[in-house]
User: Which sequence fits this backbone?
């Protein structure tokens, strides 16, 4: 109820008493204001309380939700439409035409809970009967020594799984497993490498790469963001199979210990086939040899094409010739001193079988006849510094950048000092070791017109760029020289009608561990480029300790071993690549048609 | 007027409740179906990958080579050779049907005395 500001009774009273009635009004006004203030404060307090309460509630809700999300098991969204992106498995590997090289398969692992086993002894015996590699006694001991969990096998075939089911013991349990499968068996084994299980759980296990491209590109293959998109290699399955077949036949026929071949597209640097023999099955990767005395090459796991760092012999001669032409020191027909034996300090440089091609020989003939002395003189014209710079530009000083885990480890062996005698020996491929892959990349630079490109095992889209290491003219002259090696030089068995093979042979003695060289152990290499008129492909064939005994004498030179194998490979492989044989121009006739 | 409004809103509440109840169950059924379908998709994907692996295994070059050798009598397959390339001109195309050209000229007359040099001057 509203109190009047000037209540009549009190006013009259005050007037009677002679007081100021305005005082009463002021007093009442003050009281009224106080009451209003009180009311407003109460309301404000109430609002603050509500605000506080709502803040507390909101924060409590958010906190509770966060706690709930943190505490619960993660779950896939049920309502979202699943696409290919939810497949959380290792990506497939395919060849350049999409044929599968490596894929995954679902299988099962076998484990046991011995505490709930009904008959540990009988189960152990029955398991040993199914899996011959298990020992019943050892298994029984593991089942009965009080542990509550035992792994028995990492992968099972469906038949084996059925047999284990038939044992019927409740203590035997299966866990799903993703298994890596290489359907082509040993094919391209050194490229693919292999996989094994990483962290293992009951419900799943990690598949990790152990060698080759599986390990080098492990992150890419396991990346869920790639959504299981297959990894396309530059390898062509048909070419790979053909090369492995021919190479194996050649290796057997020539009693070689091992062999390697690389087929590369000279323009793009794509490796179309990479073979190393002996090979292995990546599905069942053998264990590495731990014997200290064994050479690394004794293990089938050894990739000769990439890890095999050999002295590549005379195949290096073309680099000296090409560089001298590039520097303008010589032309293809310049005569150089080739008088053998050449004496340099206390060293004597001889030709093969003590021949003498001298006194003078054209640069083109130095390559065709594979003259050590001629090459040595060319190298001396170039000089050590420029020679090193050129070989470095060709990639001979660094490991190859190929996408294999073995590649970075295969560093070329380079002499520490580079006196002139090293310049001489390096020019014909001795004293310096590199892998066939290095050689393939360097020959590709000659074949594609002088551009050093990066060799790769991945399918390339579009054009590739590289560093120019020599002019197009020099490269063409070098290919012409290599062509002469086949038409009239040391690689005459390498001629394949229609494909104009050009190449250079190389025979190097194997170094002994104790120093010095073996007399009867060689590494033969044939580095070839075809077709010579428009070089597209580079093929390197290396044979380890081959012997040709088909004719009366024993031959160990590349011209008799690696060259025929390479020729057969080109004959088989070129049609598969759709390379049309070129009709050789007919020999100029004595009588030619004339017209005016 | 008011009681009518009360009754109407009460009825609306019941209807909404019924609708929500039905939607809830329909959603759960749909989710269950999606789950089932997803499981089916996973199973089919697995089967697909197994079949792809099997296809690759059956088409491995070693096996094809052995099969080609084993069935050589019937198929006569040999590795491809450079000599198998041919020119388009070597392909025996069927001869196109040509119009009959036995009588291409209409003889309108002969000039006597021209002795074998019969020309068609009449044209």
Assistant:
């Amino acid at each position: 109820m509203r109190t009047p500001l000037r209540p009549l009774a009190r006013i009259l009273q005050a007037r009677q008493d002679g007081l100021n009635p305005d005082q009463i009004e002021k007093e009442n006004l003050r009281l009224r204001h106080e009451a209003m203030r009180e009311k407003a404060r109460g309301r404000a307090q109430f609002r603050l309380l509500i605000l506080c309460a709502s803040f507390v509630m909101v924060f409590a809700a958010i906190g509770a939700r966060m706690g709930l999300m943190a505490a619960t098991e993660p779950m896939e969204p049920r309502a979202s439409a699943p696409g290919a992106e939810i497949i959380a498995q290792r990506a497939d590997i395919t060849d350049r035409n999409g044929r599968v090289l490596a894929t995954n398969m679902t299988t099962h692992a076998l484990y046991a809970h011995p505490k709930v086993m009904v008959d540990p002894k009988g189960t152990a015996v029955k398991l040993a009967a199914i899996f011959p590699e298990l020992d019943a006694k050892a298994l029984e001991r593991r089942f009965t020594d009080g542990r509550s969990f035992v792994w028995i096998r990492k992968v099972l075939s469906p038949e084996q799984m059925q047999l284990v089911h038939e044992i019927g013991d409740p203590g035997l349990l299966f866990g799903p497993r993703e298994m890596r499968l290489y359907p082509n068996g040993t094919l391209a084994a050194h490229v693919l490498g292999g996989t094994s299980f990483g962290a293992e759980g009951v419900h799943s296990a990690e598949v990790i790469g152990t060698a080759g491209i599986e390990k080098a590109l492990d992150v890419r293959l396991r990346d869920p963001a790639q959504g299981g998109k297959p990894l396309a290699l530059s390898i062509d399955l048909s070419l790979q199979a053909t090369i492995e077949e021919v190479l194996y036949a050649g290796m057997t026929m020539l009693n070689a210990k091992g062999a390697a071949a690389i087929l590369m597209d000279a323009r793009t640097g794509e490796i179309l086939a990479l073979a190393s023999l002996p090979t292995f099955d990546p599905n069942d990767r053998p264990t590495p040899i731990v014997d200290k005395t064994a050479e690394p090459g004794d293990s089938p796991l050894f990739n000769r094409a990439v890890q095999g760092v050999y002295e590549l012999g005379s195949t290096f001669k073309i680099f000296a010739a090409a560089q001298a032409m590039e520097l303008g020191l010589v032309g293809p027909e310049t005569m150089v001193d080739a008088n053998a034996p050449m004496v340099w300090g206390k060293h004597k440089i001889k030709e093969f079988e003590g021949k003498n091609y001298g006194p003078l020989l054209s640069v083109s003939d130095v390559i065709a006849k594979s003259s050590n002395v001629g090459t040595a003189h060319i190298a001396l014209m170039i000089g050590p510094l420029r020679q090193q710079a050129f070989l470095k530009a060709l990639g001979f000083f660094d490991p190859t950048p190929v996408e294999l885990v073995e590649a970075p480890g295969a560093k070329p062996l380079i002499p520490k000092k580079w006196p002139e005698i090293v310049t001489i020996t390096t020019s014909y491929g001795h004293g310096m070791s590199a892998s066939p892959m290095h050689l393939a990349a360097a020959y590709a630079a000659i074949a594609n017109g002088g551009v050093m490109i990066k060799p790769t095992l991945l399918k390339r889209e579009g054009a590739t760029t590289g560093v120019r290491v020599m002019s197009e003219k020099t490269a063409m002259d070098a290919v012409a020289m290599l062509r002469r090696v086949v038409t009239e030089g040391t690689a005459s068995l390498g001629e394949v009608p229609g494909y104009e093979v050009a190449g250079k042979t190389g025979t190097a003695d194997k170094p002994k561990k104790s120093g010095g060289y073996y007399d009867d152990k060689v590494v033969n290499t044939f580095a070839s480029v075809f077709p010579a008129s428009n070089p597209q492909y580079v093929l390197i064939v290396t044979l380890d300790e081959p012997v040709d005994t088909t004719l009366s004498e024993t031959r160990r030179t590349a011209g008799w071993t690696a060259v025929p194998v390479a020729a057969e490979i080109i004959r088989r492989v070129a049609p598969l690549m759709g390379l049309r044989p070129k009709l050789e121009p007919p020999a100029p006739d004595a009588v030619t048609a004339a017209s005016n | 007027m008011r009681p009518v409004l009360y009754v109407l809103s009460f009825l609306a509440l019941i209807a909404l409740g019924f609708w929500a109840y039905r939607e809830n169950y329909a959603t759960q059924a749909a989710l269950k179906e999606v789950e089932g379908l997803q499981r089916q998709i996973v199973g089919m994907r697995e089967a697909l990958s197994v079949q792809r692996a099997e296809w690759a295994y059956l088409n491995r070059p070693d096996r094809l080579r052995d099969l080609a050798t084993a069935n050589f009598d019937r198929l006569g397959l040999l590795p491809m050779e450079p000599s198998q390339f041919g020119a388009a001109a070597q392909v025996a195309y069927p001869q196109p049907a040509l119009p009959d050209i036995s009588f291409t000229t209409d003889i309108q007359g002969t000039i006597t005395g021209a002795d074998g040099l019969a020309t068609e001057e009449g044209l």
Q: What stands out?
A: Chain A touches chain B at residues 78-79, 82, 87, 99-101, 103-106, 181, 183-185, 187, 237-238, 241-242, 245, 496-499, 571-572, 574-576, 580-581 (CB under 8 Å). The domain at 238-576 of chain A is CATH 3.40.710.10 (Beta-lactamase). Chain A has 17 helices and 20 strands.
